[in-house]
Amino acid sequence: MQPAFRALADPTRRGIISLLAQEDMTIAEVAGHFDMTRAAVKKHLIVLEDGGVIATHQSGRDRINQLQPLALKSVADWLNHFDHFWNDRLSALKDAVEADDQNKQEK
Predict the structure, then answer these.
(1) Is the pLDDT at 1 greater than 80, yes or no?
(2) DSSP three-state, residue 62
(3) Pairing assessment for the beta strands 25-26 and 54-59 based on DSSP bridges
(4) What is the DSSP code (8-state) at residue 35?
(5) Fewer CB near the terminus (10 Å): N or C of the chain?
(6) Which helix or strand (DSSP H or E) is residue 24 part of?
(7) 53: closest CA among 68, 64, 41, 43?
(8) What are the tens digits of pLDDT across the range 4-63?
(9) Around 17, how many Cα atoms within 13 Å sit in the side-chain half-sphere?
């Protein structure tokens, strides 16, 4: 799971993941969406591939980058473990707002 988190740590890589969620792309197609060199984009793609977040396959002369969504599942599962943290706090906030509204109506 550590390589997947490393892959997700950079905003450019998260942007690449969003692009590849829509369609498979060559390096040039991915690079066309960012204001950086193709070599820099390739380095990000290598990190994503090392993390198992994307896979590449050859199509003629092109290397096609493809999102591997199952690699993100372990990250999502880990984060979902903390849902109760937010649910408890949002529930407490809701109760506080409702109590405040009740106090205002009684005055």
Answers:
(1) no
(2) strand
(3) unpaired
(4) S
(5) C
(6) none
(7) 68
(8) 888 899 999 999 999 999 999 999 999 999 999 999 999 999 999 999 999 999 999 999
(9) 22
- End-to-end Cα spacing for the chain: 54
| Short-list 63, 64, 72, 65, CA closest to 3 | 72
Give the 3-state secondary structure of residue 10: coil
- Residues 27, 43: contact at Cβ < 8 Å? no
Closest to 1 (Cα-Cα) out of 55, 52, 43: 52
Q: Residue for token digits 């473990």?
A: 81
**36-to-6, 18, 62 alpha-carbon distances in Å:** 20, 17, 20
Question: Which residues, including other chains, have CB under 8 Å from residue 28's CB and lie 6 or more apart?
Answer: 38
Cβ-proximal residues to 88 (8 Å cutoff; 6+ apart), any chain: none
User: Alpha-carbon distance 52 to 2, whole Å?
Assistant: 11
